[in-house]
Amino acid sequence: MNRRLAILLASAGLFGASVALTAPEVGDTPPSYLGKDQFGERIRLKELRGKVVIVTFWATWCVPCRKEMPVLETLQQHAGRERVHVIGVNIEGRRTFSMMKRRLKDYTMSLVHDPEGRLANRFGVNGIPHMVMIKKDGTIASVKRGYSEAMVPKVIDEVNALMRSEHRTDPAAQIDQDAAQEPS
Question: Cα-flanking dihedrals φ and ψ of residue 131, to 5°?
């Protein structure tokens, strides 16, 4: 991220005061501590090894993000927590996040709050939506920046491939693409 853009984002209060020097990329191990979820439980990626993890940064004012959330929740429900862990990191203020927690109270995916942008900064987020897919071994498999609704089937295919890697799975246990596109 160039310094001018970083200063602009920091002054706008979107991503905190510090600038990410290097964003984790494919093959890297991402920062482990993600904060606390909507139930106050700490989320550490190192404790999720053996599962496919999807970390997505979002905000309510981001139209693609709002469309993505029900899809990711459906993915979480169909795959199950024992195989996939979806984490939605909201970058907005406390009041908006509190409202969203109430609205999404039935969601099984984890919701994390990052109002100062510290976590977003550590992940090199400079725009949303921003998704990081993490393999079972804890390394980054894919980073998607600014993707669209049309990419959902490809994301589902990637998650299925990640779940199959290192452990053979029953094809019937894979996520149904049609079901994952339905809002919950």
Answer: -120, 135
